[in-house]
Amino acid sequence: MIIIPREKSVLENLNSYYVDVPKPVEHCQGEFGSGCIHLQSPRIEGVVFFDNDELLNSIFKNKEGQIEGQAALDGLIEAAADHNFTIHVYKIDPKKIYFWSKIPTAKEIYNDLRTEFTDLEGLIQEMNSEKLTGYIDVSLDRGKESGLVFFDKGQIIGGSYSWNNGEVNGSKGSQELLIQKTKESSGIFRVSKISFPTDEVKTESKDSRKEPSRNSITMLGELLGIFERVIRSHRKTKVNFNTLLKKKFVEKADEYAFLDPFVAEFVYADRKITFAGDASDEELARGVTESVKELAEEFGVLAEVRNECVFWTQKHQRELGRIGFSF
């Protein structure tokens, strides 16, 4: 995905027929400090991000796909010999240049939030509270309309919207319009996170961390599997189970931070739990079972879930007794 902020255009409509592509890169570094050079032809699109000292990233995109880094730059230089590129240069704030250059490296951490169960305003607030860097990708009415909301350390720094031809801008009105459209249309939210080399790394030693036992993780994975089976058995309950569970985990994240889907420490898939956070057996059990109980009550299936858990309770009687908890 090639996304660039276009507010500060400093050079426009250069033609690669008259320009040796590597030369404007060197010139722009010295003249503008930090920014990007956008190259576009009918078949190829590319961008080169730079600051005073170095080239930060390059992207080459054609019908066959997209590549990044030095290979992308080499591809653009080579393509310039055979294709006629229109070139635009944009100046970007040095404090934001790393963000824009790393958008192609963003990792999707949440891919199936639906408008029926997730409020975009709440999702934006969650991004802010977690101080995450990345973006929310909104697709409405099967892609008929779309939008991207960009965050840097939890703060909105712009957006890109289909009704504005996808151009990046900081319009508050466009953000509010996107929020309104998510309330009126069906669609999907995807959240992607950009990681920085300077992100703080936990220095706490592994031995000093509180980690749940493998028995507890297995036990709770089985509980979620039972609950999933009950939910799916009710044909009238037309809901994506993973979406349902993640929505509840978002609600519980203030109390049980390790459940926060944005942090991605707790992952449930194929009736198994993968956990990479810090929590005691007791904390993990409370977070999961409270979530199951609340959801079961909301869907009116708590009695059925408890009935289905009779064998599970007997099987894990010792483990449940050890942590002093019962479902």
SSE blueprint and pairings:
Elements: E1 9-15, H1 22-32, E2 35-40, E3 45-50, E4 55-62, E5 65-68, H2 70-79, E6 86-91, H3 97-101, E7 107-114, H4 120-130, E8 134-140, E9 145-152, E10 155-161, E11 168-169, H5 172-184, E12 187-193, H6 214-233, H7 241-252, E13 266-269, E14 272-275, H8 281-298, H9 302-308, H10 310-315, H11 317-322
Antiparallel strand pairs: 1-6, 2-3, 2-6, 3-4, 4-5, 7-12, 8-9, 8-12, 9-10, 10-11, 13-14
Helix pairs in contact: 6-8, 7-8
Shape: elongated
User: What is the terminal-to-terminal distance?
Assistant: 46 Å
Number of strands: 14
Query: Helical percent range?
Result: 25-40%
Number of helices: 11
Q: What fraction strand?
A: 25-35%
Low-pLDDT segments: 198-209
Number of separate domains: 3
Give the SSE string.
EHEEEEHEHEHEEEEHEHHEEHHHH
Strand order of the biggest β-sheet? 1-6-2-3-4-5
Label the structural class.
alpha+beta
- What is the typical, i.e. mean, pLDDT? 84
Provide the gyration radius in Å. 24 Å
**Major beta sheet summary:** 6 strands, antiparallel
